[in-house]
Amino acid sequence: MTSTTGTACPHCGWPDGVEPFKVVSRHVTAAGTTLWTRCACGSLQVRTVDGCGTRIVSRSRPA
């Protein structure tokens, strides 16, 4: 999975451009795919995957 953000988790530093620690759920939409993922620190993330790449559109605090 290639990230277009080029950043890392602000809580633990896990790079956004690598595979997420755990995929919680995956949903196909008309625009692409929405992934709910959990970072190594427990932060829940919402990622959108489309023709432009992967973007993290929301991120929670660690669980």
The value of Rg in angstroms is 11 Å
Low-confidence runs of at least 5 consecutive residues: none
- What does the overall shape look like? globular
Write down the overall mean pLDDT. 86
Description of the molecule:
By secondary structure, this protein is mainly beta. 0% of the residues lie in helices and 46% in strands. The protein contains no helices and 4 strands. The chain has strands at 22-29, 32-38, 44-50, 53-59. It has a 4-stranded antiparallel β-sheet with strand order 1-2-3-4, with no helix packed on it. β1 (22-29) and β2 form a beta hairpin. The model has no long low-confidence stretch (mean pLDDT 86).
Task: Give the helix/strand layout.
Elements: E1 22-29, E2 32-38, E3 44-50, E4 53-59
Antiparallel strand pairs: 1-2, 2-3, 3-4
